[in-house]
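Contributing new records

If you add data, match the layout below exactly. Sequence lines come first and carry their own label; structure lines follow with theirs. Keep one chain per record. Anything else will be rejected by the validation script.
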Amino acid sequence: MKIPYLTPEMRGELDLRIAKIREAMAEGDCDAVLIASTTNLFYISGTVFRGYVLILSDSDPVWFMVPPSVAPDGFPHCHTIHKPEMIPAWLHEAGYAVPRSIGLEFDDLLYSELMRLKSLFPESEIKNASGVLRKARMTKTEYEIRKIREDGMHQARAYSKVPKCYKEGMTDLELQIEVERVLRLEGCLGYLRAAGSRMELNLGSVISGDNADMPSPYDFSMGGAGVDPSLPVGADGKTIKPGCSVMLDMNGGFNGYQSDMTRTWYLESVSELARKAHECSRRILRDLEKRALPGVPVSELYIKAVEIAQADGLGDYFMGHRNKVKFIGHGIGIELNEQPVVMERNRQPLLKNMTIALEPKFVIPHVGAVGVENTYCVTDNGLDNLTEFPEELQEL
């Protein structure tokens, strides 16, 4: 596999990311971090390959490529190894001191992988570096923000074709398949990268009717029963009925980053309660867009959203009816579910250039889910919407 040439722009971008990781390493008292997971390899390299990256606190990072991966043109400090056990010998021969403490990705690797890497450094204190890397990735560079905005533009173009995807008598699954086709033709890479081993999804969810309040073992704002026990989430294969809402929360991954956008349609008519709840979702977003300034506790966004929903008499339907979730948003970037989680107990302050998806949604019995989700960047003036597309409740 030949990795593309490292452009000057990308080299500068990677230098910024390395600096962010080192800052987080200093706070976590790590002398070195050995990166092995796909997500973090992509973050630090701009590509996915088989191998490792060693980030050192006091010298240049070292890339270790395992064949068939090869060092890209213009990539500094790249070395070929055939197994990770070759790393300590290389460091010794190159004159590097044994790190006093080294971080490994406890939360991102299999136990057997972790134990294998841990055995390479018997003299070092081994620390969990997953939090270090999540913290570095939590705030985005201008390059990353531009990539997520590009995702949002592609996603909006695909969503504009949704009404033409619908044909009378369709099931939710049939509609989802047509929307997936439009997304792929728009350039969607066709995968959803999520943190953790207990979150699985295809290209997203089309939720209609009472399926919106069906429980799912995955931590999504709207569950759905799915069509098979092996993937119990999302569309359940039932025909979309008049009077029901159709909520689309589909994939926005076009370039290694992801945007998250939900819009809601309906078939023929929809109840006034559903319309009221949908407009409440939009008002919540307008409030949070102004409120979410750097330094504001993340919890304040959740508390204010609940307050607005309850003031409108919609508390029973907010973030579920029969099955409720306790968050209204999440960080987003290379993975769909990055830090921070927007929930009441998260007192972490918002930081400039965090990217977060906010999704104040409602479930109306026998109608379905309504509401809007946008992906935002935190700025000094509030939230900048990276997923601009009409938010009104629309008829299919």
